[in-house]
Amino acid sequence: MPERIKNYLLVAKPGIVLGNLISAAAGFFLASKGRVDVVALSATLIGISLVVASGCVFNNCVDREIDRKMMRTRDRAIANGVISLKIAVIYATILGVAGISLLWAATNLLSVVIVLAGLVIYVGIYSLCMKRNSVYSTLVGSLAGATPPLAGYCAVTGQFDLGAIILLSVFSLWQIPHCYAIAVFRFDDYVAAAIPVLPVRQGTAAAKRHIVGYILAFMAASLMLTFAGYTGYSTFAVAIMLGLSWLYLAWSGYKASDERLWARKLFVFSILTIFILSVMMSIDFTAPAPTIS
């Protein structure tokens, strides 16, 4: 029984759920500005986590064939038949319905729509349609990855304002170099599964150029949090230090003798970057800048 429970937990990708939980909390805290409704926070985070877990299980269902071709994923419970496809679909549906129901009861329509949009983009557009067919799948998938912090923010504000746009930009732009780094150090897996990510389709040199460009765009978006009056100058300073460090590490890839090792370091640092930035957004909030009319 413990082994069965473990399989059901792992197929929901708890690491991804945790990462999205942290970013969703950052969005909620940023919008709350220190006036946190603990009940609403708990319901929002649990609801978003359940929907993210649902998307991960659905993704494992869709990817079961290609998972068998990749060293990293071939032992997943759905790929190797430990959990049947039918049971997995039911499991994913229950998780999704539970999460959406909780969000519907505890937040607002905008937050529910955002989370549903993320689920549809991730499972329907990214996993089912684009992942096997388009080099642009990462760009589309990045939008889904940005919905948890966006939903957390809108659960408080109830409106899609400038802060929501900035959060969408920060987290979607972060996703792209993060995912390209994975594709570089897992290059052989992606080739084996015939997934046309940019490093495979256009080469690692092109991937490095894109990584540098997207990190620059991410830096600009993260600084807008302070310029627009949503965070203080502590976040501004941290965002600059993180961005420049990430950029330096990305630039060092042009001289890296071991590209796989370089990409793995870039991947790890990307996680550290978004975690620290999420913490800063949670504690260094301020009132929005006044509108000049």
Ordered list of secondary-structure elements with their pairings:
Elements: H1 2-11, H2 14-32, H3 38-62, H4 64-67, H5 85-106, H6 109-130, H7 137-145, H8 147-157, H9 162-185, H10 187-192, H11 198-202, H12 204-227, H13 233-251, H14 259-283
Helix pairs in contact: 2-3, 2-8, 2-14, 3-5, 3-6, 3-8, 6-7, 6-8, 7-9, 8-9, 9-12, 9-14, 12-13, 13-14
Features:
about 290 residues; mainly alpha; Tetracycline Repressor, domain 2; 2 domains; about 75% helix; disordered C terminus
Summarize the structure.
The chain is mainly α.
CA-to-CA gap between the ends?
Answer: 64 Å
Average pLDDT: 94
How many strands? 0
Give the amount of beta strand, in percent: under 5%
Q: What is the name of the CATH architecture of the largest domain?
A: Orthogonal Bundle
CATH topology of the largest domain: Tetracycline Repressor, domain 2
Largest sheet: none
Radius of gyration: 19 Å
Q: Can you give the helix content as a percent range?
A: over 70%
Uncertain stretches of 5 or more adjacent residues: 288-293
- Under CATH at level 1, the class of the largest domain stands as Mainly Alpha
Shape: globular
The CATH superfamily title of the largest domain: UbiA prenyltransferase
Q: How many separate domains?
A: 2
User: How do the helices and strands follow one another from N- to C-terminus?
Assistant: HHHHHHHHHHHHHH
Count of alpha/pi helices: 14
What oligomerization state is this entry in? single chain
Structural class: mainly alpha
